[in-house]
Write a structure and sequence with these properties.
about 500 residues, eight-stranded antiparallel beta sheet, alpha+beta, 17 helices
Length: about 500
Amino acid sequence: MIHPLRPPSEFRGVFRDDLLARAVYAEAAGIARATPLAIAVPVDAADVIALARWSHETLTPLIPRGSGSSMSGGAVGNGVIVDLGRLDTIGPVADGHIMVGPGAIRSRVDAAAARVGLRFPVDPSSGAFCTIGGMTATNAAGAHSLRHGSMRPWVTALDCVFADGRREVIRRGVPQQWSETERLAVRKNSSGYYLGGDLVDLLVGSEGTLAFFVGIELALDARPVSTTSISAAFRTLDGAVAGAAVAREAGAAACELLDKTFLDFAQVDRPTDTEAVLLMEFEGEVPAVEFPEASRVDVAKDPEAQHALWELRHAASPILNRLDPGLKSMQFIEDGCVPPARLADYVRGVRTALASQSVRGVIFGHAGDAHVHVNPLIDVRDGSWRDRVSVLLADVAALTARLGGTLTGEHGDGRLRTPLLDTVWHQWETLARFAEVKRAFDPDHRLNPGVKVPLPGQQSLGDIKYDPALPPPPPAAARALARVERERAYATPRLTLLAENS
């Protein structure tokens, strides 16, 4: 048997198991820290096949990873991290489609489409540095999902390497053998496996638990001739929810919520007693829309004015970065999605949960889809901070379940939410079917174990990278990780950052 930390002889990429390399891959954009066994950086699909066969022989867990911008802990773990960043080819556009490698950066793919007058419309806020492989793995979305949806409908084929090393291209038109068992009444969902329909649909959103993606074919769309942006302020959450329904029915491409918690931190100028602001974008001709409950409405048509409106969406981040260094913005209840009619109930419930633990937080998100992001600000100098995090996570998970929602609208279950799947997926049959899918593709649980299907005794909160009681990473790794966080340098390979900071 091959030693677990010695790569297969035919592997031609980088393989490292030294402490520095392992430390710089122990973190991603979420809260978790987990030191891997080793790091493998394949150069092509043949290397991925070699790793999969080696894993099959040695029972070594493999954790697929893109740029590490994921929030839910699916890109960190105790196996061998397989960094797919070098598989970053971007093919030519043909018949409105493009084939790319899993390591291709989303913004670069969109730029390639733009050169022929097209676009890739799935646009997460991390688009400047996230990979298409990671987006496909989590069924990512973004601000324009209100009109254009998440990744799933835009993926037309997947070049896969399965757990036994077999490589096969799966195209649309291949039905699943698993019948649909349950649908949550939400507009977006990245939780569990997608059961029913096409095999491509099952693989998209599977978070590296069923196969490696070594090639992804995407459909493209026409670029809009023009856009118009609208900002509307509301004195009540219910008024904002009603405004989001108006925008949705009028065909808005995007409709974003900035809650009072966000507006206070960002120090946004708005009418007195504003509870929420909606930012909306319409593509092409704008229909006649009215927001009778709005206290102020601003319309922007030229690019500069639109840019100024949308800068509000990003205004809180610099302020959060300047807060007391003891306060850490921890995203662990950051991706809930509920039925649109329950959006106000969800925001009020999250506010109540935060207040019950004496925790401040910033709430914002995709109002048109009732999909909310939350940044709780945790004082890690308080000895009870982990208890507060645990209670908040449990309370908001229960709130989401009561409202008929999902814990993840676009970021995936990861290791953070997988142990909580039984909170929102109420039917035992559904969870049993998820386990059946996993066994069929990966019977030894070697592909991203602990994601989608929990391991025995698995807990949501392990080591949290902000914990002052944890030993710090080695200095060079700490400098590299600090640069990632400070500069959002996710698109730069971690080993390159490590070399530059050694």
